[in-house]
Design brief:
Blueprint lengths: L2 E5 L2 E4 L4 E8 L9 E8 L6 E6 L5 E3 L7 E6 L4 E6 L8 E9 L9 E2 L3 E6 L1
Parallel strand pairs: 2-11
Antiparallel strand pairs: 1-3, 3-8, 4-5, 4-9, 5-6, 7-8, 9-10, 9-11
Length: 123
Amino acid sequence: QVQLVESGGGSVQAGDSLTLSCAASGFSRFTFTSYCMGWFRQAPGKERERIATVDTGGSTTYVDSVKGRFTISRDNAKNTLYLQMNSLKPEDTAMYYCAARYRDCPSTIAAVWGQGTQVTVSS
């Protein structure tokens, strides 16, 4: 059973940076490298949205609202996923979730989820 544990959230000022980490474990039949990984976020009263993915080959995707500010990366040797967030805005305030899916990239209805880490950005 794959388990994901996020860390690195916090309260910051607009314009600041944060780096989120997601430690993955519990791989049995398939290794971390076989999973497409992603970051999602959910703000109060809003639906959970996928903001970035990195696939098994290292290719990345981003939602328009974070392009140029956020960078997703993975360290396969450490079974860890990262999200570097720069130039944070108040609208980035949300619970951030790490997600994994075997082969295909995770979606809101198909993923293994972490417990989430809160990011709060004040103006």
